[in-house]
Specification:
Elements lengths: L4 E8 L4 E8 L3 E9 L7 E5 L3 E5 L6 H15 L4 E9 L10 E2 L2 H9 L8 H14 L5 E5 L9 H4 L5 H7 L8 H14 L7 E7 L3 E7 L2 E5 L20 H9 L5 H10 L2 H6 L5 H9 L3 H25 L4 E5 H6 L1 H9 L10 H6 L5 E2 L6 E4 L4 H16 L2
Parallel strand pairs: 1-6, 6-8, 9-12, 12-14
Antiparallel strand pairs: 1-2, 2-3, 3-4, 4-5, 7-8, 9-10, 10-11, 13-14
């Protein structure tokens, strides 16, 4: 295990397949890319390596077809090392899977039974697993769970105020997501700020999906997402926290079907629903500057709810040593960071305006004093490769 190896990281969606080839233990990303519009007429495979490539896929291409097209490309980049393992992102591990685990037939059956907990994600993750198992049947393959990092939360944080029978029989509780991202940026912060300066940390993963986590001495003790990725912050197209009575009203008075509710809450709400314009923060910031009232309102609600969630997450930490922004919005949208931190000034947070405005997609501290505020680009793929590597290493005698 001392020689360099290649670990392929796969993140399968219902109509997409994101991939990254990581050289380990050097932790170097060799190639990455995305297969899009799977199942549609114009499926494509786009790669970023030393050069950018775009390869056509057969009409209606499946995950398996995308991986078949990827195989010869990967072979060109693994001349110095061998492809040794595959790490799969699996969104929901329920209470069955608290750590990364090697995939087996029995494990796949268990994951099938958990699909009801994440019907928008786990079935797609499983499709990617099956396709990779066919393409690389001789390689060990590992499931890295979004929920695993949050499995140490206390019952006071993960239980809902519902009859406990629902938890015992159906696993209805808060699980949390974006685990590899929260784990990576909090670990990276401890490298940058050893000791107590990084003991009480809030990590803010802000992208099209958004979540925050309270991390105490490297362990997640609470997080904003719940049983599903719908709970918590306002997101690109997801509503975030919502009075359950609204759902009852829509079901009973507006005659919404479960499918319509699902579409409303996951695809038509959030920044898109409020602004009636876009779910893209870049577009909304531009529209706000041009006087678009809906864009302004959407961003005001987004930043207010984010600041409110961060303040709440300071409670289980007993204070705050650092706030870390990551994700597409967190890493690149200085005005959003500024608005969130301004509403948290009572916690002692104070931005360096010039540093905040200039830092985009780069790592660095953007505060003037303690508690510190950081931007740390997430490296979920590297964290997943790390998990697979150490699982594989533990299996060796």
């Amino acid at each position: 295990m001392s020689d360099a190896i290649g670990i392929l990281v796969l993140n399968a969606g219902s109509s997409s397949l994101k991939f990254s080839l990581i050289q380990w233990p050097q932790q170097q990303e060799i190639i990455k890319g995305l297969a899009e519009r799977l199942g549609e007429a114009e499926s494509t495979l786009r790669l970023q390596a030393p050069e950018t490539l775009s390869l056509p896929l057969p009409s209606g291409a499946t995950h398996e077809a995308a991986l078949q097209a990827l195989q010869p490309v990967l072979e060109r980049y693994t001349g110095q090392f061998s492809l040794t393992a595959i790490a799969h992102r699996v969104v929901h591990g329920g209470e069955h899977f608290k750590t990364t685990a090697r995939l087996s037939a029995d494990m796949l059956q268990t994951l099938e039974k958990l699909s009801h907990l994440a019907p928008l994600h786990n079935p797609a993750n499983l499709a990617g697993i099956r396709a990779a198992t066919t393409a690389w049947s001789g390689l060990p393959q590992y499931a890295v769970f979004d929920t695993a990092f949050h499995q140490g939360m206390p019952a006071s944080a993960y239980l809902y105020a519902l009859p406990q029978q629902l938890y015992r029989e159906h696993g209805i509780r808060r699980y949390g997501f974006h685990g590899p991202s929260h784990a990576y940026v909090s670990a990276r912060l401890r490298e940058l700020m050893p000791g107590n300066a990084s003991r009480r940390v809030i990590t803010a993963h802000l992208g099209n999906g958004c979540s925050m986590a309270a991390i105490l001495a490297g362990r997640s003790v609470d997080t904003s997402m719940g049983m599903t990725p719908l709970e918590g912050l306002v997101m690109g197209t997801r509503s975030g926290d919502l009075d359950p009575g609204v759902l009852l009203f829509l079901l009973e008075q507006c005659q919404y079907s479960p499918a319509q509710l699902n579409q409303l809450l996951n695809k038509k709400s959030g920044l898109l629903g409020i602004s009636e314009l876009s779910n893209d923060v870049r577009s909304l910031l531009q529209a706000k500057a041009e006087g678009h009232a809906g864009a302004r309102l959407a961003l005001d609600i987004f930043t207010y709810r984010a600041a409110k969630a961060a303040a709440a997450l300071a409670v289980p930490l007993g204070g705050l040593d650092a706030l870390v922004f990551t994700g597409g919005i967190g890493e690149n949208a200085g005005p959003i960071r500024q608005e969130i931190v301004a509403q948290l000034s009572f916690l002692g947070l104070q931005l360096d305006p010039e540093r905040n405005a200039s830092l985009q997609g780069q790592e660095g501290c953007i505060s003037l004093s303690a508690p510190s505020v950081w931007v740390i680009p997430t490296q979920e793929e590297r964290m997943m490769a790390r998990e697979a590597y150490f699982c594989m290493k533990a299996e060796k005698p």
